[in-house]
Amino acid sequence: MKMKKIDIAEYLSEALHLRDRQVVDFLEERAVVEPVKKRDQIFVIGKRPEYVALAVDGVFRAFYVNEDDMEVTDCLVGTPGESLMPGFDLDAPAPATMEALTKGAVFKIRLADFRQLMRMSPAVGSIYQDMIQRAGQYHLEKGRVISSYMAEKKYRWFLETHGDLDNRIPDKYIASYLHMSPVTLSQIKKHLREAEGAEA
């Protein structure tokens, strides 16, 4: 389903701060915004992406299956305008599967059209490079937290960085993201609730 042109223009302005008329016209003609259902897969691990995708609405996760046949949530996205790309290299097979955890919508543009747009607009190229840089910093920070923090401190970090997602998705995905068991996460949340109650 393609959004009305004004909807795409508003999305570009509000989520990406893109207001260049030539860019907006190009994207209104070439891009689409598609609704997604819970558990819809945007990209599948091992398959080459055919388009660039950004979040419009909803919550998404990138995950892979480890050697113990367990799903590991590598990334959580819940902010409009954030990249849903499973990896940095647009020409490489997806290193993870990206799926919707809630119903929502995705902004999509074919890779060939996206590359044409980057050649046409330095602003778009700058936005893309900024997304890559922020994604790299995100994974470095997450890696530091996962490797050096105890379980409760990991969850407190999650609340600071992804607090708006805490009650929007099942705890099992948050636990997977933080590399802990759902039971451990449940115990931490119970402990924090009790501590807050004691302070009240």
TrEMBL record:
Which organism encodes this protein?
A: Candidatus Lachnoclostridium stercoripullorum
| Stored InterPro entries | cNMP-bd_dom, cNMP-bd_dom_sf, RmlC-like_jellyroll
Query: What Gene3D superfamilies does UniProt report for this protein, alphabetically?
Result: Jelly Rolls
Q: What is this protein called?
A: Crp/Fnr family transcriptional regulator
